[in-house]
Amino acid sequence: MKNRIAMALGCVALIVGMQAALAADPAAPKPTSKPVATGKKSMAEKGSYHVIHAKKAKLDCGDCHEKDGLADNTIMLRLHDKLAKGDPGPVDHNGCLVCHKELGASPVRYATAPAPAKK
Amino acid sequence: MAKFVRLIDLKKCMGCRSCVAACAVENHFTPDAPWNVMNEYEVGTYPTVKKIFNTIGCMHCEKPACKAACDHVGAKAISKNQFGVVLIDYDKCIGCGYCAATCPYGVPQYNAELRPLSPGKGAIGAETLPMADRHPTHRKKAKVVEKCTFCTHKLEKAVADGKTDRIGKDQEYTPSCDLVCPVQARMFGDADDPNSDVSKRIKETNAVQMLKKFGTVPQVFYVLEEGANS
User: Fold this and answer.
1) How many CB pairs under 8 A join A and B?
2) Which domains are seen in chain B, by residue range?
């Protein structure tokens, strides 16, 4: 009985020791704060487009990008392109209308509907 | 003044991609930067399913979002000419990609590198011409954006020949994609002329512009198949 208890305690000590050793491993990958390459078409690392939307406006990736792709009947030129590894997905332009249709803080990209005729 | 528009009848289109091939040869777009793409999808529930083919190129919007974006960054590389054709000046384009990101139809294509249309098989079509002899829209450059031009080189030829009335009718004055459709699903002509074939057919078929909610007023009209998204 004593031998079994000693063996169990020894195993626990071994597991705890291994975890501590792994946690302190200097070769283990560390999180990075630098931009991560997400595919050849991404403008994340070079354009101000993402600086404006992701950093200044603080939009989440999912606010613009559809990770699972767009619906089959979406009107878009390269709808069925395969996504590169790590690509956050195509942008659903319907979301752009939230800020870019009406005059406001954001530049108007899409023409506003004509004002109703005065009676 | 003429305003040229295109009509695409999705009820007739069978997805053969002749229009895509014709555009590729006429305008030698590279695989990474297509000017015309055929999308396809299924609608309905088994056993009554159907395939929809939807060819998409530049809509040549009356209020182009791409131009607004380009002007905003100061490049001013995108213009809209007297015939309503939206064009990109490769010498002014800075390759920022704002137009591509802004276009609701995802039309402008960033051409990262100049690649032959048919790799390993030598130059074909307009690729065989010296750069100086080409129309400006065919003087391709790497790291700029390009897109469909309504075959503006043909429209300009019609103007130069005094044959604008033959646009949409004669081979040399009509966009190549509209010429080759084997089922006559495509039509090109002057929408300002109520008696033109394209004007009549838009009216007869109740053709619509895609994604009207963006307010860009496209100059390409579609006869929609059941289940298609406008």
Assistant:
1) 81
2) 4-223 (3.30.70.20)
The one-letter amino acid at B53: F
Domain edges within chain A = 57-112
pLDDT in tens, B85-122: 999 999 999 998 889 989 999 999 999 888 887 788 88
User: What's residue A12's pLDDT?
Assistant: 66
A103 sits in the region (left: phi over 0; alpha: psi -120 to 50; else beta) called beta
Reported in sequence order, the residue ranges of B133-224 that DSSP labels E, i.e. its strands, are 144-146, 186-190, 208-209, 220-223
- Looking at residue A65, the DSSP 8-state letter turns out to be B
- With H, G, I as helix, E, B as strand and everything else as coil, classify residue A118: coil
pLDDT digits (tens, 9 = 90+) for B48-63: 998 999 999 999 999 9
Is B211's CB within 8 Å of A75's CB? yes
> Is B15 in the A-facing interface, judged by CB distances under 8 Å?
no
Query: Which residues in chain A have Cβ-Cβ distances shorter than 8 Å to B229?
Result: 71, 73-75
The residue among B61 and B31 whose pLDDT is bigger is B61
Contact B215 A101 (CB under 8 A): yes
